[in-house]
Amino acid sequence: MPLVALNLCLVYVGYRSGREQASQEALNVARGLALALEGELHGRTLALEVLAGSDALARGDLDAFRSQAEALVARQAPGANILLLRADGQQLMNTAAPRGAPLPSRIYMVNQQQVLRTGQPSTSDLFFGIVVHRPVIAIDVPVPTPEGAPTMVLALNPPLDAFDALIRRQQHDPTWIIAVADRVGTRVARIPDPDRFVGRPLTPDLMERWMSGAAEGLLDGVSPDGVHVLTAFVRLPEPYGWGVAVAVPKATLTRPALRTAVALFAAELALLALGLLLARRIALGVLHPITDLLRFAATPDGPTSPTVSPTLGLPEADRLAEALLAEARLRRAATASLVDSERRLRLVVAELNHRAKNALATVQSLALQTARTGGGEPRHFIRTFTARLQSLARAHDLLTAVGWEGAALDAVVRTGLAPWLGEGTDDGRSRFVVQTAPNSPMPQIPPGQVQALIMGLHELAVNAVKHGALSVPDGHVEVICRADPVGLSAAVDWREMDGPPVPGEPARRGFGTRLLERALARDLGPGARVVLMFEAGGLRATICFTPRSIVEAGSASYTSPPQG
């Protein structure tokens, strides 16, 4: 009885799993068909919109326009016909009728009125074509006019068998029933038996869900042939409004479940007999391997620890021995990693000590140079020295944010100029414009060069506030960051505009100028250069350097303190 109960449970679980899988597959097929259907309708709509913009139609040359329409039908929609209609439904052209033949008015006007009202393309429901004498659907697009409001509609009646071909290309299983239906649930295409069901409404249970407005769903139902099915449907949004229904016969799910039940029942009986025969032999072979496994597990870690798991003669014991050996390896690796982490920690502490000494040396140098240029005025010294310390602090904050791994060039420039970036002129312009050169990826700048560059930018900004463009209300500064990925170089261009006239190069170099021309070029590394141009329209400066490798720079100290 337990085996029978287990068999029934397995069959039921398999059936439920198969049902869920079939439901999901049917829904996925319906979604794929809906996308293909939308692409088919969209493609035909686009072709018709292109034709509606024909110069021949705009000139009123219907003969030339009919030739273009017939060429489009022959090339992209064999078996279709194209109509040109007035707003009242009178046909002006129909490629299904001979040239010059009298044409009737369109009777089905719902879709056409929708197009004329909204000025947007729309796909109709199934209706009877009075010229072709068969059920048709219409893709209507407005004919553009110079006045704006459309007065004519261009329509395409594709053959319904085109949608049968669409279903066949996407059909997942030949036993499944697939149908394409319009907004009101009338079948436009169906496989199998399209001749019997095209033009007829969906089944009542599906029609109820179809007309509820749901975008997609699953339901149990009965096909028109009386077959119990599991149905998945997907509706397209407007301007199409059509949808796809995929029905899976439930018999295709129950038959495999019954076969599985019989196969499982036979296998369980065979396994039960085999288990009874092997149980005694297996029990006799368990005791010795388990004893050896206990002895192996009790072996302490050390130089004499085994490196290969023993063969115990019992697969489970062998796997457990391998697991124990793997755990021992992990434990030894963790111990080695802990030792390595301690070594790294000592290196980090030593590096932090070295960086702290360099930072103190930088602060000492800043204080000394500021005192030299302050003229003995305490307030001037405090203000200038505090501003330089804050600039140094911003550099440290930026490097801390990036984990001392280096920062992008534009981020370094914005950090160095942060106290002035929010200022604006009287006419609303920003006093600082920081730009990056187009198609110029910003390089990563290592910590030492970051600090040097931020200190240099601080001195440029302070000089602009005191003597340059920022000393007058309308002055502003333009800063451009650029990089040469081929030459592995980076540059910052500084340009002051609309400030007081510059009389020329100063007779005496202050601390800021010396820091820029000497210390900054040295601290940015070999090949770096800082050019100051005292032009009459405003100071211009160019800072060029080669960013050092982040890995290489990681073992270097901070940039050396600025020298006078």
TrEMBL record:
<protein>
    <recommendedName>
        <fullName>histidine kinase</fullName>
        <ecNumber>2.7.13.3</ecNumber>
    </recommendedName>
</protein>
<keyword id="KW-0808">Transferase</keyword>
<keyword id="KW-0597">Phosphoprotein</keyword>
<dbReference type="GO" id="GO:0016301">
    <property type="term" value="F:kinase activity"/>
</dbReference>
<dbReference type="InterPro" id="IPR011102">
    <property type="entry name" value="Sig_transdc_His_kinase_HWE"/>
</dbReference>
<dbReference type="InterPro" id="IPR036890">
    <property type="entry name" value="HATPase_C_sf"/>
</dbReference>
<dbReference type="Pfam" id="PF07536">
    <property type="entry name" value="HWE_HK"/>
</dbReference>
<keyword id="KW-0067">ATP-binding</keyword>
<keyword id="KW-0547">Nucleotide-binding</keyword>
<feature type="domain" description="Signal transduction histidine kinase HWE region">
    <location>
        <begin position="351"/>
        <end position="436"/>
    </location>
</feature>
<keyword id="KW-0418">Kinase</keyword>
